[in-house]
Specification:
435 residues, 14 strands, alpha/beta, Rossmann fold, single chain, five-stranded parallel beta sheet, 50% helix
Length: 435
């Protein structure tokens, strides 16, 4: 007698049995017709923890939840969700997460293609690695959140540990997330890496090399298990051999982080600091020149032009005036310097005593003969009719005028620099700054 199996119970209702068997035959026939369409958008691999497709069985009325029975294929189920939602789930579906440094993109892409896709028979949708054009990070995604979600939802995390991997904050974050769900992590070292290069979490993990056949076989078994498949893929042997034949050449292009000696690093920091200070100084100078240019344009007399051309900063202005005076004084003798200082103080230079200071007396006599000094019978005065003397006096006068109006801050700086007060009425101060 025909029988029907509903809700794990057998019934002797012929009508129900015929209806169920007819439905099963139709579904099997449909599956045969669409064997090549299994990856089409109307079909998808069953998501973990999702209920099977529910199909109506109007001909079965024996304890089948109001005439409803469950039917599920072993690998695929008919999709009834909207297209937009289905595409979102397709993107979120990868079961294998490949953690790697972005600088190792070429090496990792070959690994994914040779070992995971061609060698293990995975589809691109089952593998996520950030460098993959089809499996990478979507535009607009929050990078940190996206990576954490992918690591968390993956059945297996393969960490390809290279020199650049150890230098990457993101890679170490991915590794930490995978380590939390220990057992789902399979770390492999690129050729040339040493176990002594590892520290932190990595130092405590059992790591093998990506160019070792036994390691690759173990990895393949883990990949097949994570993908829900049994045994080895048909193409595994040839693809693993091809990978082993090319891995050394691929590894030659792996980048290595630049390691800087601590002394060199400090030197670079100092140079950077100096450069930044020079840049700030240049910017300040540029602003000063712009303001100075405006003052010069607004000046109406030659004296105002000279004043406008001076820097705004007191110390800088002092240095400019001092340099101009020292340059002008090189053209005249020291005795004339003293005559000019006396003139800036509205007084005359006393004739040196011939017996007490013969050398200075002879110097005054020579300057008098040159015309740089004028004899007023008892005293000497600077002769401004000579251009060199007039230039020196103008420079000294400008510095004297400036020194009468300095701020307390400048006076403090001046005292620390010359160990005398900022007051040109004292001859000792004059002698200190004209050197």
């Amino acid at each position: 007698m025909p029988v029907c199996r509903c809700r794990y119970r057998w019934h002797t209702d012929a009508r129900s049995a015929v209806g169920f068997c007819a439905l099963a035959a139709a579904l099997i026939h449909r599956a045969g017709e669409h064997r090549r369409a299994l990856r089409h958008k109307s079909w998808e691999r069953p998501q973990r923890h999702e209920p099977e497709k529910i199909l109506s069985l109007p001909d079965c009325d024996h304890e089948c939840s109001n005439g409803v029975a469950r039917f599920a294929t072993s690998k695929y189920r008919q999709n009834t969700i909207p297209d937009a939602e289905r595409e979102r789930q397709d993107v979120a579906a990868p079961r294998i997460f490949v953690s790697h440094a972005s600088q190792d993109e070429k090496f990792v892409t070959q690994f994914v293609e040779q070992i995971l896709i061609l060698g293990s028979g995975l589809s691109p949708e089952e593998v996520f690695y950030s460098s993959g054009a089809d499996t990478g990070i979507l535009p607009g995604e929050d990078l940190n959140h996206y990576l954490r979600e992918k690591v968390r939802d993956s059945d297996l995390v393969i960490a390809i540990i290279s020199p650049m991997y150890l230098d990457s904050t993101y890679c170490l974050a991915e590794l930490g997330a995978a380590w939390v769900k220990y057992g789902a992590l399979f770390p492999v070292l690129t050729p040339g890496m040493k176990h002594t290069d590892l520290d932190g979490i990595l130092a405590s993990l059992l790591t093998s090399y990506i160019d070792d056949r036994a390691t690759l076989d173990q990895l393949h078994d883990q990949v097949m298990k994570a993908a829900g498949r049994h045994g080895k893929a048909a193409a595994w042997g040839p693809r693993a051999a091809r990978w082993l034949a090319s891995v050394d050449d691929l590894a030659k292009d792996l980048s290595v982080p630049q390691i800087i000696d601590p002394t060199e690093f400090q030197e670079l920091k100092d140079r950077l600091k100096d450069t930044q200070e020079a840049l700030r100084s240049s910017e300040n100078d540029l602003r000063d020149l712009e303001r100075q240019n405006k003052r010069i344009v607004a000046a109406k007399t030659a004296e105002e032009v000279r004043e406008a051309a001076l820097p705004e900063d007191e110390i800088e202005r002092f240095h400019v005036l001092q340099s101009a005076m020292i340059k002008a004084f090189r053209k005249i003798s020291p005795i004339v310097h003293d005559a000019i200082w006396n003139k800036t103080q509205n007084q005359l230079l006393e004739w040196p005593h011939a017996a007490k200071d013969e050398g200075r007396h002879d110097e005054a006599t020579k300057a008098l003969q040159q015309g740089h000094l004028v004899d007023t019978l008892e005293d000497l005065d600077a002769n401004l009719e000579f251009p060199d003397v007039n230039e020196a006096y103008a420079a000294a006068k400008a510095l004297a005028v400036f020194m009468k109006e300095v701020t307390p801050e400048f006076d403090e700086w001046f005292r620390s620099e010359y160990n005398v007060p900022a007051n040109l009425e004292y001859k000792h101060v004059w002698d200190a700054i004209k050197q």
